[in-house]
């Protein structure tokens, strides 16, 4: 371990009741660029989880009693905190996630804006009826102690996405780090203690066992998860026993549809970036690129030409465009997908070079698969890496059917000039977000969600904010003066009477 790495070896702890905490068991965090350990982190015990929940419960009474403005001010203070430590976060993301400097800077740079925008959201009480002596209204109440799991690919972004609305609504939040990329989350919550009261925002490091404890815990009222669909299904099963409120932001197999009138050179740039940014480790990355047969060869060749110029290597090298994938599990899966393509005789339009000389890092070269069949693994599965299947299409209805032919439904993008034709295709896509002539255009006021196996619930925007509260009907009669009468029961319809035994 060199000197630069050694300074990260210690100093990462849980935060419980506003204070750092270690554990009897620790584990090493692997730098994906070298395949070597660079930091040591604790693994939370069940007793530490109980301490964290108890601290959050104590904090909830006073935190939920604060005004919207007071809690919004805390979010704005967190934004200032990130700006003050921006360069340190960039370097840490590069080291533990493997992002190139541009991508890491983009993640850190967007965090303060996300916090500030979220701080502007507010849920006002809604008066339903107002009559002499009685008022009926809807008000929004926090759940209490909540928890959220952070994914490895955007460790700071997901911290902000989860906590901003959770805390603004008056909840207390326990963050669970990614087991392979925990350092950014641990360091952020440590620094945040200078801004938030003890117990309001905590963080625990651990793996699947900790996640299971959080979901099963009877006093954790809500759980928000970002990760794979397979794990999301397991979370949903575990949460069912406690009838727990959930948000699941899961996988995607996003189609990009290129019309024959698209600008070939410009669209090729967008497609390559959309498929390989952050080494393809984005739920919203372009996973299947459908190119109209009239321009298929030209777009393919332009993507290949651009891919040849993209350096895959050390994130700290200024010339690097794409770093390694973040962990060995993803690395081995991607190698298996490439091997499957070759074994089945699919045409490989391009397979680049990647890595650092003598490194054990998890580098996957940009690989472009030329028109594989729709039932190929590389088309059916979410690859989560820089392996790009290009698919040829001819008819608009055909490409819609093929784009929708997946268990996922996260995002899609459409590229071209004929807006009538584009709109017709967009209206038929079964996804949470459609981008037209752009990609990954997100905003704090736009909802982010998936349909089908891509998720349950909403993140971001006022719709995501609503996930962190429950609506309460509040009916107030000012006085008990006057006779109280029982409401007249409704007489069931004949149809209702015929069905009355259905649920008996």
Automatic annotation (TrEMBL):
Please name the GO terms that the record assigns under molecular function: oxidoreductase activity, acting on the aldehyde or oxo group of donors, NAD or NADP as acceptor
Q: Where are the transmembrane segments?
A: 143-168
- Kindly indicate whether the keyword Metal-binding belongs to this entry: no
Q: State the PROSITE patterns in the record.
A: ALDEHYDE_DEHYDR_GLU (PS00687)
Name its species. Dichomitus squalens
- UniProt keyword terms in alphabetical order: Membrane, Oxidoreductase, Transmembrane, Transmembrane helix
List, alphabetically, the Pfam families matched: Aldedh (PF00171)
**Active-site residues, record numbering mapped to chain:** 249
Q: Where is the Aldehyde dehydrogenase domain?
A: 25-469
Protein name, as recorded: NAD-dependent succinate aldehyde dehydrogenase
Biological classification of the source: Eukaryota, Fungi, Dikarya, Basidiomycota, Agaricomycotina
The answer on whether this UniProt entry bears the keyword Cytoplasm reads no
The UniProt similarity line reads: Belongs to the aldehyde dehydrogenase family.
Which PANTHER family does this one have?
ALDEHYDE DEHYDROGENASE-RELATED (PTHR11699)
Highest rank taxon of the organism? Eukaryota
Q: Which SUPFAM superfamilies match?
A: ALDH-like
Chain spans, region Disordered: 484-504
Q: Which InterPro entries match?
A: Ald_DH/histidinol_DH, Ald_DH_C, Ald_DH_CS_GLU, Ald_DH_N, Aldehyde_DH_dom, LUC3-like
Signal peptide feature range: none
């Amino acid at each position: 371990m060199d000197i630069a790495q050694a300074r990260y070896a210690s100093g990462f702890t849980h935060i419980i009741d506003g204070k750092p905490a270690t554990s009897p068991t620790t584990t090493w965090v692997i730098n994906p660029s070298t395949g070597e350990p660079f930091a040591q982190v604790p693994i939370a015990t069940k007793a530490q989880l109980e301490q964290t929940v108890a601290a959050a419960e104590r904090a909830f009474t006073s935190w939920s009693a604060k005004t919207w403005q007071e809690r919004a001010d805390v979010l704005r203070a967190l934004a200032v905190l990130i700006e003050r430590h921006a360069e340190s976060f960039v370097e840490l993301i590069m080291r533990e996630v493997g992002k190139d400097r541009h991508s890491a800077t983009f993640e850190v740079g967007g965090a303060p804006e996300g916090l500030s925008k979220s701080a502007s959201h507010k849920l006002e009480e809604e008066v339903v009826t107002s009559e002499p002596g009685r008022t009926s209204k809807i008000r929004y109440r926090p759940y209490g102690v909540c928890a959220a799991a952070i994914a490895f690919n955007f460790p700071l972004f997901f911290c902000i996405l989860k906590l901003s609305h959770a805390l603004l609504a008056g909840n207390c939040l326990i963050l669970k780090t990614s087991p392979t990329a925990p350092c950014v989350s641990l360091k952020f919550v440590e620094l945040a203690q200078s801004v938030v009261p003890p117990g309001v925002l905590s963080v625990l490091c651990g793996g699947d066992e900790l996640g299971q404890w959080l979901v099963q815990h009877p006093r954790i009222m809500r759980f928000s998860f970002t990760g794979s669909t397979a794990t999301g299904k397991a979370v949903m099963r575990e949460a069912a026993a406690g009838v727990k409120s959930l948000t699941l932001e899961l996988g995607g197999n996003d189609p990009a549809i290129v019309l024959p009138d698209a600008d070939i050179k410009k669209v090729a740039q967008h497609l390559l970036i959309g498929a390989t940014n952050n080494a393809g480790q984005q739920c919203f990355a372009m996973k299947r690129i459908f190119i109209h047969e009239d321009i298929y060869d030209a777009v393919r060749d332009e993507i290949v030409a651009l891919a040849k110029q993209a350096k895959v290597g050390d994130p700290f090298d200024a010339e690097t465009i794409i770093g390694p994938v973040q962990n060995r599990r993803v690395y081995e899966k991607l190698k298996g997908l490439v091997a499957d393509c070759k074994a089945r005789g699919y045409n490989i339009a391009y397979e680049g070079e990647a890595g650092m000389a003598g490194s054990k890092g998890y580098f996957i070269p940009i690989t472009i698969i030329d028109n594989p069949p729709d039932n190929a693994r590389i088309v059916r599965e979410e690859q989560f890496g820089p392996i790009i299947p290009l698919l040829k299409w001819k008819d608009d209805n055909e490409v819609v059917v093929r784009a929708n032919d997946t268990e996922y439904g996260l995002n899609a993008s459409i590229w071209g000039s004929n807006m009538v034709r584009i709109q017709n295709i967009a209206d038929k896509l079964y996804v949470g977000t459609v981008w037209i002539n752009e990609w990954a255009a997100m905003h704090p006021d736009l909802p982010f969600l998936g349909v089908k196996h891509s998720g349950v619930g909403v993140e971001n925007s006022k719709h995501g904010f609503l996930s962190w509260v429950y609506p309460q009907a509040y009916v107030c009669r000012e006085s008990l003066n006057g006779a109280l009468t029982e409401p007249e029961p409704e007489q069931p319809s004949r149809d209702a009477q015929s069905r009355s035994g259905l649920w008996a």
